[in-house]
Specification:
Elements lengths: L1 H26 L5 H33 L17 H16 L18 H16 L2
InterPro entries: POX_dom, TALE_homeobox
Protein name: POX domain-containing protein
GO molecular function: DNA binding
Length: about 130
């Protein structure tokens, strides 16, 4: 579901870029900025809120299932999958609102790269058990 939301956000950004370019052809360079800035900011906030709500639901479902999951033994299983994503999105938007960060709204919705935290936690635990404490 998160990937679908991100895909829709990308579609929205593409359509806004098309709209801006067609508006600027008629009205001139930079003319669309004052009209589209608030719309981009509001929609980015809505998509971010929707994504945070989905992540919260995933966390709750994960928390309910966590007693059923096997324990790793080193305490690394307590790492959360999405702890920093929601905070990053909220912090970035707050900084953009007060004007400390400027730039494309797309950076808020950059796809997550790398392995999920749970995979990293399992790998760390295995490496710790087999190489540091054989």
């Amino acid at each position: 579901v998160v990937f679908q939301v991100e895909g829709r956000y990308e579609e929205y950004c593409q359509k806004m870029e098309d709209l801006i370019s067609s508006f600027e052809l008629i009205a001139g360079e930079g003319a669309a900025k004052c009209y589209t800035a608030l719309a981009l900011q509001a929609m980015s906030r809505h998509f971010c809120s929707l994504r945070d709500a989905i992540v919260t639901q995933i966390k709750l479902a994960r928390k309910k299932l966590s007693p059923e999951l096997p324990k790793i033994g080193t305490g690394l299983s307590q790492l959360s999958l999405f702890d920093r994503e929601g905070q990053h999105c909220t912090n970035r938007m707050a900084l953009q609102q007060i004007g400390l960060i400027q730039g494309a709204q797309r950076q808020v919705w950059r796809p997550i790269r790398g392995l999920p935290e749970t995979s990293v936690a399992i790998l760390r635990a295995w490496l710790f058990e087999h190489f540091l404490h054989p």
